[in-house]
Amino acid sequence: MANDGPFLTYWQSGYEGADHINHGGTRLDMNHANGHQQRALDDYLLLKQFGIRTVRESIGWRLVEKDGQFDFSVIEARVLAAKELGIQICWTLLHYGWPEDLDVYGDAFVPRFVRYCRAAAEFLKPFGGPAPVFSPVNEISFTSWGLSVRMFRCLNMDHEHAARDAKRQLVRAAIAGCDAIWEVIPGARMLHCDPLVHLIAHDDAPASHAHAEAMHELQFEAFDMLAGLRDPELGGAPRYLDLMGVNYYDTNQWEAATGQRLWWHLDDARRRPLHRMLVDVHARYGRPLLLAETGHVGSGRGIWIREIAEQVVMARQRGADISGVCLYPGIDRPDWENPDYWHHSGMWDVVAQADDSQARVLAPGYARGLKQAQSLIEHFYPTHDKQLQAPDAGTVPTMVVFSHIRWDCVNTRPRHVLGNLARHYRIVYLEQPVAGSTVEHMEVRHPLPNVTVYRQYTSSADSDPWTALQSFVTGLASDIGHPVAWFYTPMALPLLASLAPSLVVYDCMIDAAGTSSPQLLAREADLLAVADLVFTSSPGLRDAKRERHDRVHYLASSVDTLHFEPALDRSNGHPLQAGFKGPRLGFYGVIDEHVDGELLAALADAHPEWHIVLVGPVSARVEDSLPRRANLHYLGPQTYHAWPQFLVGWDVCLMPYRVDAAAHINTANVLEYMAGERPIVSTDLPDLGQSYGDLVAAICRDHDAFIAACEYALQAPQAQLDDLAQRMRALTATTSWTTVTDEMRELIASRQGA
Fold first, then answer.
1. CB of 40 within 8 A of CB of 81?
2. Integer angstrom CA distances of residue 259 from 202, 215, 252
3. How far is Cα of residue 606 from the mean position of the Cα atoms in its chain?
4. Beta partners for 327?
5. pLDDT for res 212
6. pLDDT for 180-198, tens place per residue?
7. Radius of gyration (Cα) for the chain, nearest Å?
8. 404: which of 136, 586, 617, 721 lies 20 to 30 Å off by Cα?
9. Separation of first and last alpha carbons in the chain
């Protein structure tokens, strides 16, 4: 993926190059530790499959200066490999390490650094072209913090004001280093990188908020100093803040006073979306931003990088100049403090094999996630053809969606269908209003590129909550032309009169005939009369609706296997169920009148040692009648993002629906259970048996059979479970939400062209 600006490609790979002496006194050379120094050519060749031709590398000041002399042979192999393969290297000069005889706070530090920068620039000048990219000092803020907590063993490591004085000294060094490099290579670009973080108060006290804000602002001090926005005696000026790099990981958000992380994998609601953080930084400085380091560990790598791409697109849509994304590290690395512990954070893990003690093994989930991330950014901001421009928001057609389903609720079909369609439409997702609020207001969220979710809170006690959106939809209609109107619930049909739709779509996931609401039945009949297309999520619904509409299409729900990859890693888990010792049998979905409460009670009573974990919102219609047992755990609504952390801890997955009321129950979560490769026990659901019967451990007609099936699943031979998991894996690999939505788009286009 080619790129405008200072970088050869938008996507980049970074290599861990720390060369400091750790607190225990171990001298680090990370490029040697993972073999990158010895096999740079091969490592660069691996990047070809992802179209990456820009890399970030570190020289290592401590490694190249001995007794006042410079020996750059340690980077020669990388330089020559890059020249042979057409790779652009962006060099970091100080990566936490400096000569051991040098006091970072002393008067000699900056002149010594200037001499080193000049020598490095002279060595690299023949190889980098007219505008090479240099980072004089990596992470000034992090380095100064590291010195304050004695992370680095060095002269004067007990300095009383380390954080303050180190930051100022490193800024002086960076400024002087820029000047030294420019003397040798006038066209060089300067990239300054630091962590991008979000800190919050741990309680509502004004003092806590003031402390959190002050701590939050510290991340910008070094940038402000470099730009001359503060402490002018250091010599900063706008020209020094040339290119900005922000480093972002899942651990970059926390409570300021306690240090408690706002965990990404648990979808902590207090987290700030990355796109808003990027927009804030760009607005503050007006400089191009490189996401200079990002990545995750273990089984979360793929979904992390895909989410990063979504956030980058949203930041760019809001005006932030994001000039690239660097995967860090490209090759896995050992821990700074424990060389035997490898982080499993690279695109390639380092694995000891019979013929290679440091073999590069591609992380398949990460690779899939990166391909999806690259496709997303390329779709919105094509770079392969410089004549192409990102589509003007005003030319993208609008799709107005009326849904009784909360965006982050247990049913994920709307999320995936509309998330994919958002590449081609501006999605306006109107949730069913929330009645009974003391303060009327509209909550607006932007969960994905081109998706805006509206949730109206109203004080009205009207029996039809959708009436609260009448004025909003009327106002919306004047701005959007002729949208596609998309219904997940017939109850919103009266609002259609305010629109002038080009097409009406009904994506049906529930059987209105199975409800006791005459109003719902009547409105569905009216919706079927005006709908141009009807999609259904099950064959049973297709058959039922075909009797009432000529254009009904069964498009089965799919599963995002990448999202559920963490459910395959038993080291994961959710703290809400961590205390449940013993077998866990789990369900997630809406807990309403379709769930068989008597079955749950029988299951809990038959085996008090089992823990039945139920994740999802509880309908007010059944809340008082649900069984209560010590081993029945109602954990309430949880976001889709956190589901794999529950699923990984379950031994059996449950589909405990009433047989007599569940003719067309949505069974989409069965595929998600399969993505976690857990045995599934279900009641006798017609659509389930028709679609996946041979992959469900048991489909049971009564309570005793259901309990017996759970007993067997918990004691099944491992070979049988392995075979089941393999067959589940084979099935989920054939499904794709992209395929589903591509077919929907084709059907929409054919109707609009009719």
1. yes
2. 9, 11, 11
3. 41
4. 13, 294
5. 97
6. 999 999 999 999 999 999 9
7. 29
8. 586
9. 38
